[in-house]
Amino acid sequence: MAAGLERATRRDSANVEAVKRLTGAEPVLVDVQPLQQAMPGFDRSTVLTSGAPLAWDEYRGGQRAGIIGGAIFEGLAQDEADAEAKLAAGEIRVRPCGDYSCVGSLAGIYTASMPVLVVENHSGGNRACCNLFEGVSRHRLNYGVYNEDVGRNLRFLHDVIGPVLGETVRTLGGVPLLPIMKRALHMGDELHSRNTAATLLFTRELIEPLMQLQPRMPTQVKQTLDYLRSSDYFFLRLSMAASRSAADAAHGIQSSSVVTGMVFNCRDFAIRVSGLGDRWFRGPLPTMFGAKLFEGFTEADVEFMGGESTFNETAGLGGFAQAAAFPLQEYQGGSPEKMVEANLAMYRITLGEHPELKIPYLGFRGLPSGIEIHRVVETGITPIMDIGVAGKAGGQIGAGSFRAPIECFRSAVAAYAEADI
Amino acid sequence: MAAGLERATRRDSANVEAVKRLTGAEPVLVDVQPLQQAMPGFDRSTVLTSGAPLAWDEYRGGQRAGIIGGAIFEGLAQDEADAEAKLAAGEIRVRPCGDYSCVGSLAGIYTASMPVLVVENHSGGNRACCNLFEGVSRHRLNYGVYNEDVGRNLRFLHDVIGPVLGETVRTLGGVPLLPIMKRALHMGDELHSRNTAATLLFTRELIEPLMQLQPRMPTQVKQTLDYLRSSDYFFLRLSMAASRSAADAAHGIQSSSVVTGMVFNCRDFAIRVSGLGDRWFRGPLPTMFGAKLFEGFTEADVEFMGGESTFNETAGLGGFAQAAAFPLQEYQGGSPEKMVEANLAMYRITLGEHPELKIPYLGFRGLPSGIEIHRVVETGITPIMDIGVAGKAGGQIGAGSFRAPIECFRSAVAAYAEADI
Predict the structure, then answer these.
(1) Tens-digit pLDDT profile for residues A360-380
(2) Is the complex ipTM more than 0.90?
(3) How far apart are CA B79 and CA B82, in angstroms?
């Protein structure tokens, strides 16, 4: 009994600390540079991808196609057959994004030369990176498609967008992201499936350095403005890096039962827990809570090809902030009533409320933050996540809200009970 | 009986047409230029001010001070005493803003040299103008204050902001406002007391022409960007001109009982009705529905010094769109529940729903548009208006929601019953 109480006290204190670190993150975009420069230890023959690690022969569908596409784009292989052979032989390594503090959007393919947004969490002293939004085409490498157009677009990001953004961000001495995220939540964004306001606010920060750069690089500056203008989702990659940096800072606290990561690959969903080391607790893929598919597609066309943007929900955004983003109905379906109800349910499985990031409709209540594994298992309420939906033929076919599976939370609770904490 | 039916049919048809013109407006910002250029017939010795006309000796408080300040700013008088004398003698004329298709913010002071935003309603073929937001200082001419700082700021608008905006708008060949307003309503604006998103979206439209202008006028371009950046309310003047242009287009339809203008001066609130000519139906000043005053101020400090931004409510914005703008709680108080309830009530006194401008929280229902005088009198529900609150000592002291008085609607209903329609 006394031991049980002591254990509970240790857990409570550890969780207070975890929530404090999670909600106390101060993410600042400090640079945009190729992954191999941002992560000097990065081995050029590596391809990163979303989710808990799998053996190469377990990757399938769009995620497998994305990894192969990344290898070809990077010049690690000449064609698909060559890539398949080298991947099977281990000449090309596949690693989870998290091994290099990256966070994957959908398939989450990273190779050495790709420009990444480098976000520093000033309060945690750690960094996280995310690569760039590929634009509005339905076909993108992160949706498991690689062809001539996709390759040309990736080179454009490498040659133009990355360098211009890098220079402007360095000129500014960094761009603090929290003030932008705070305002965006008051402007219809939940910062996962809607980033319209945040992208605009971020663009405004860049105007002056872009003007300074213009005489030297007029074409590239114009191309960058066009890219930012056409990409209402640009900021998603920044909110992802910010969320990963916050979650990483909250990870590794002895005795804490707070979730510090939710990811999926093409086969399973997985969570990690602050006090339970680097183990991923796996469960089945998420289930549809409500989605809106592009015309001509049905639920049978949906394919899971990975995703780590659910770090945003880990940090209280997206499905945990739907009541900030009623316009999402247009993009992913649902109704305001259902969004409010789903959002309120997330307070039942979290321990804290974000002191800075707030939801106007809920009377400026702070975002529900710090998912606690026992609360999930006891209530049977699992996290709701706003994600882009990929199709079996590759490409995006819609967007929707999905529920995390309860199995991984049950496994985590069991492991927690057995752990020496 | 048959005559009564015929009359009702004529009214219904006329009102359908009025709502069509009101909600079918296509406002485009076509230029920014001094009032005397925008309105060639404008007599230089005239000062415009908000509300139904009053005799000079009836103007009082901040509105009177504003008129005098405008006269001094324009060089029509040397000092207050000189201005008082010339105004009393009729050497300086005071006219309502509407005489020159202008729309007044608070006291609504216009003089010949002031730059105005020229908005053309492409569907109606008419124009409306609004002068520029004076910036974030609590003391501004439109809040009844004229001093050295206010004068310097007005000259800055005249020398820098007006010319730079004018050139960029002409370079663009005009800026369509409806697409911006549509998006802004999905981003937390109700386009009266909250214009944050619209101002950002408008700023984005100007980036490229500002870049083109930069080599020639680097300082002025930077000052304009700073001005736009510091002014979350910049767009209010554009939504006001857009609303006035829509309301003017809907005015003058024989037999229509739709409200085409709501304004107030320092003494009374007034409405005009599409089918009842240019007569203003006057009633007492609005009553407070809910407001948030800056620290240190109470309701006893509130002074009415005029306002025509309520053309926005006439067109379905502001108090008619509160459910689009929950963040307004911070600025003007209230609760989400009360905002939704107030917004829904406005559908009971209007005849139409805007086909383009919609409210996400209400399942993308169109804005309630086309206030009908009989509906107001029968339900006892009067329009709710989001307005800035002026103080007795001059300057802004807060913001809030106010209710229009029922008396002017009753007078209009009586006049309508007697009219030969």
Answers:
(1) 999 999 999 999 999 999 999
(2) yes
(3) 5
